[in-house]
């Protein structure tokens, strides 16, 4: 076992120990750390569906969007115009898209989003927080995975649910999570020349 | 190759030919046949998210729910109380759940749902129809897969999107579909004794 593998295993062991300690305190209901990952569809739209579900239940909730453009207009407009009371909506990713070539700006935007995310998660009024596409910010190390996982495991209020979406979820996050779903692409119409469409893709 | 395999292959060939014919007529935008399947989370909530997205865009839409209880209260209440104008909501599955032991009643409920679904799909005002958990009704042959696939391929208006959700999507449906996502369960908290919770599971 080389040094890197040993460090990785030790890290995973620590995360598992922290998670087990957390799980040992669980009551019948608890706030979950939920991850939607994979290359398939439905990671963000399912998170958005859960947000609407919370609104239906009267559960105060929040969204921090880490990548500009994932939600182009449909859901953003609906939340901003009709549910501004029920759901706090923050876009941190205005400054970072696939086209940006300015890493410092990207890191600053991601960090600002994470700072807001922590406030929202700690807010005792809010019980459900969606961190949309945060996995992208984590993947490029715009955010420190250890800090994020440590915050979720040790600071997140017991009854608050946090959903983290995006491809390529880091193994540390999967280890820390309670509920992980991988969306797998089976078939996609883009290969047949069909463009992205309102209501389906955005 | 035995008889069953030969019949299956011939059937798939026919579906593919019908689908290719349909695809040959496609313009840049087209209504898609979309399937969410697999044992993981997010099949229904992502469909529901797409419905809310349509509402945000002002696209008239409809939901036919084939299994009672998949959407317990959150989203159903929201659609019925706040978006009754924008989204037609039909529950056909009142009569069939895992607990029902009356197959005739189940078949009748599924057939009634499918009859309404066809009307909604054909309605020129409606551009997006979610058939929630229809795969369960298809799996148990409460509905005839050939009739459903044939209707989608030959009768669905060109620009209307239809989303079909539920585990164990039949191969005929996957063959006919434009966009198929499999939700795979990576990790689930139920095994740790955590109960289903508002906002997350329903």
TrEMBL record, chains A, B:
One of its GO terms (molecular function) is corrinoid adenosyltransferase activity. GO terms for cellular component: cytoplasm. CDD domains: CobA_ACA. Its EC number is 2.5.1.17. It catalyses: 2 cob(II)yrinate a,c diamide + reduced [electron-transfer flavoprotein] + 2 ATP = 2 adenosylcob(III)yrinate a,c-diamide + 2 triphosphate + oxidized [electron-transfer flavoprotein] + 3 H(+); 2 cob(II)alamin + reduced [electron-transfer flavoprotein] + 2 ATP = 2 adenosylcob(III)alamin + 2 triphosphate + oxidized [electron-transfer flavoprotein] + 3 H(+). GO terms for biological process: cobalamin biosynthetic process; porphyrin-containing compound biosynthetic process. Transmembrane segments: none annotated. Keywords: ATP-binding, Cobalamin biosynthesis, Cytoplasm, Nucleotide-binding, Porphyrin biosynthesis, Transferase. It is an enzyme of class 2 (transferase). Pathway: Cofactor biosynthesis; adenosylcobalamin biosynthesis; adenosylcobalamin from cob(II)yrinate a,c-diamide: step 2/7. InterPro entries: CblAdoTrfase_CobA, P-loop_NTPase. Pfam families: CobA_CobO_BtuR. Its main location: cytoplasm. It is found in: Cytoplasm. Belongs to the Cob(I)alamin adenosyltransferase family. Required for both de novo synthesis of the corrin ring for the assimilation of exogenous corrinoids. Participates in the adenosylation of a variety of incomplete and complete corrinoids. This is Corrinoid adenosyltransferase. The gene is cobO.
